[in-house]
Amino acid sequence: MKTRKIYNRIALLRHERGMTRKELAEKTGVNFQTIGYLERAEYNPSLDLAFRVSEVFGFPVDFIFSTQPQVPISEELHKRIQTKKEK
Amino acid sequence: MKTSYSKKRIRTGVVINYFGLAGSVVIWEFCSNSYWSNTMIIAGIVSIILLLSSLVLTYFTTRIWHFSHTPVNKMDERELQISSHALRYAYGIFTIIALVTFYLYSLAELQVSVILAGGMLYFAHILPASIIAWTGK
After folding, report:
1. What is this model's ipTM?
2. A20 touches chain B (CB under 8 A)
């Protein structure tokens, strides 16, 4: 079965929190190299690992991971504000 | 795998390692059936040096060896995926090569030497790590 590429915001969230790959790896229970592979979207995490990552950052899984290339957070916020204003 | 080790360098190391292994076994098999000339002794020593140095530089220092020789409970999910994939391919490749080798030996009515058996044992151990090194995952 050919798997789809899973995009994520791990690198962005990690930088925002001032966390190193090693620190995130320790919190999620994986090797720090695996974090690098995840950030480059070269490895698709298991559901368990995806939940562990989302628990570390305190965001829902679908906010961090997506099957579509993710837009910058500022752009997404702007879109949401515009939609609210239109309503 | 450290990023400072380029894919090309690792692949070169894998090739040198197999040349070293094949060289050592072939020289031993050839010379034990005829005689040990000085050239063959030097060639044998060079093969062993190539084998050992490429083993250390390609497999140990890059931690590739770790993927195929670490207990399952000490690996994360990505490492498990990589090692399972490599072991699956290694099993198929090793089985075919071992059976063909022993079949050819039986056809030629040759005895399996200690060195050939040792070489096959080494090959069985190194093959999964070579697949990981070659694919660069």
Report:
1. 0.75
2. no
